Amino acid sequence: MRSLIERLHREHTLSPDELRTLLVGCDAEHLALINQKAREVAYSHFGNRIFIRGLIEIGNCCRNDCFYCGIRRSNRNVERYRLDKETILSCCAQGYELGFRTIVLQGGEDNYMTDERVVDLVSSIRKAYPDIAITLSLGEKSTEAYQAFYQAGANRYLLRHETHNEAHYQSLHPESMSLQNRLRCLYDLKKIGYQTGTGIMVGSSGQTIEHLVEDILFIETLQPEMIGIGPFLPHHDTPFASEPSGKMEQTLLLLSIFRLMHPKALIPSTTALATLAPDGRERGILAGANVVMPNLSPVWQRSKYALYDNKASMGAEAAEGLRLLEEKLDAIGYVIDKSRGDYEN
Ligand code: SAH
Question: Whole-model pTM?
Answer without folding.
Answer: 0.97
